[in-house]
Amino acid sequence: MIERSRCAAIVTAAGGSTRMGTPKALVEVRGRPLLESQLDALAGFGQRIVVLGAHATEIRQALGDRLTGAHVLENPDWPTGRSSSLRVAFAAVGDDAVAIAVTGVDQPLQEATLQALLIAFEPAVQSYAVPMVGDRRGHPLLLSARLRDPHLRGLADDTTLRAILEPFAATAIAVRVESVASLANLNTPADVARFEKS
Questions:
Q1: Mean pLDDT across 114-120
Q2: Could you tell me if 112 and 180 are in contact, meaning their C-beta atoms sit under 8 angstroms apart?
């Protein structure tokens, strides 16, 4: 099992949240803002990197000291898409990290899923680990830090993380998990309502 202290974690929270109607990072799910819950789920990781953009000032003011301990970055290029935020985050990952967890603020993390990935993944020989619920890919991704240069830190705006990882699929590992929450993407108030009932 990989020790959390040897891993970095990235939470992207830079988007405009137009479908949600309010910053996703501040949406309360089960009584807590999403970003706060995500950071708590990642407790113990050597680095917890958050990338803000559209609502950076509002999020910082609302969460205040609940962001303490996280490395909070701002992406001025957030309108170009998530790849620009990931590029900012990957550039901040320390050289001592052996693995990097990646999730969006709207993709609720589950402790059991994180543990399953950390137990199964061998970053020295495998490229990445992805949780699987049935035949569907879930979140978060757990990447080998060996992919940082040039692949991750060089992520271009006109590509996606999935496209970057595709050539490494032969050395990836699928980790079976039980929680359907690993498939959740909370893009709208209706998505949040369904998730809270699950």
A1: 97
A2: no
